[in-house]
Amino acid sequence: MAADTTAHLPLNPPPTAQSARAWATEAALAATRVPAVGRERTAWTIRSWAEVAVGCLILGGAASFSGLDEVIRVSGVRSGGRYAARLRELRALAGPVPAGYPARLEGR
What we know:
The chain has helices at about 15-30, 40-60, 60-75, 80-90; strands at about 80, 105. It is mainly α. Strands 1-2 form a two-stranded parallel sheet.
């Protein structure tokens, strides 16, 4: 019986920096469209951005984070609860956290 030589081949080619950035941008924008208002909306948005950050790490780190970084920069969201801390920690795994990332407010 012949040995299976396909076991170590990737299923898909790795994403390009451009496609990873495009994915991160679209995912980060989608994360802002939540059916809530006020602090609840902000909390869900930041929580979803943290999930996008996990995807950015999987896709390739700094290059893919540029899309998420841009959406956060223009969003105006500057503070949040525990998920703001998680978002910042995940972002730090790919390099310095850009100015404008939401910060955790005490008591939230």
